[in-house]
């Protein structure tokens, strides 16, 4: 039986998410196996503005929009993408 491992992923913050985080990217550790929802929950523990002040956003995993059950793997890149407005 395989033991659970720790995954390391890179999280990218775009636009206002980066301003609120105070950085454009971080490394995040998760227990394996993990999903986009697991990563989001861990981010909400670290950043209280996520889901509150920034209530509308999309998550992408490895450059594709993700559902809550999208798997993340060691080395995956997860992006927090706020709504985009144009003018």
Q: How would you sum up this structure, described in words?
A:
The radius of gyration is 13 Å and the shape is globular. With 87 residues, the protein is of the alpha+beta class. The strands form two sheets. A five-stranded mixed β-sheet has the order 2-1-7-4-5. The protein has a two-stranded antiparallel sheet with strand order 3-6. The longest helix has 11 residues. It has one domain: Ubiquitin-like (UB roll), CATH 3.10.20.30. Helices cover 20% and strands 34% of the residues. A hairpin with a 2-residue loop joins β4 and β5.
Task: Give a quick summary of the entry.
The chain is an alpha+beta fold. Helix content is 20%, strand content 34%. Strand 4 and strand 5 form a beta hairpin.
Number of E-type strands: 7
The secondary-structure class comes to: alpha+beta
CATH C-level: Alpha Beta
Cross-sheet strand order for the largest sheet: 2-1-7-4-5
Which quaternary structure do these chains form? single chain
CATH structural architecture: Roll
Low-confidence stretches: none
CATH topology name, in short, is Ubiquitin-like (UB roll)
Our count of helices gives: 2
The main β sheet shows up as: 5 strands, mixed
Radius of gyration: 13 Å
Report how far apart the termini are: 55 Å
- In the CATH hierarchy, what is the superfamily? Beta-grasp domain
Share in β-strands: 25-35%
> What percent of the residues sit in helical stretches (DSSP H or I)?
10-25%
> N-to-C SSE series?
EHEEHEEEE
Number of domains: 1
Chain-averaged pLDDT = 94
